[in-house]
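#struct-help
A.M.: can someone run this one for me? Single chain, 164 residues.
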Amino acid sequence: MPELLFHFEEYNSQIRMTMKSINIGQSLFMVYIILLLVSFTGMQTNHALRLVKEGDAIQEGHSDAIECSKSSIQVHQGPSGSTLNGIPMYIVEITNTCSRSCSGIHFSCGEFSSARLVNPKIFRRLRVNDCLVNDGAPLKSGLTLSFQYATTFEYPLAVTSATC
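D.P.: on it. Structure tokens below:
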């Protein structure tokens, strides 16, 4: 029994030393990433597929019960946990949860700008409060686009239109 107590105290001491060495920013970033993964895993289960029998062949098809709209485009964003020359960075993930591709995806984005270059083929401001995703091209079902931007505050981003 004393031997078990010794091992427990040694293990507990190692945990405390490890926890002290982890930066709080890294911990928050890891929690954020885990939450994103959990939410995206949940979204993947929302795809309703059914088998459609055509003649003798059975092929996978999409259920007609699912209506796709701009609400099928999900956006998640938050602090990345890092900075660019002291400016906070944010990560954005845009996911198509529709059972088919969506194109012409536009976001309300205020006067979006970034101290870090954002690939304009992924996300760009066309005019005040109008940003285009994926250069207007179709975003396939289940795919996620992501980018990071740097500014002093998090821009509120919301889907205004999409063609699915």
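A.M.: thanks! The longest strand covers residues 73-84.
D.P.: also worth noting: Confidence is low (pLDDT under 50) at residues 1-8, 11-25, 30-65.
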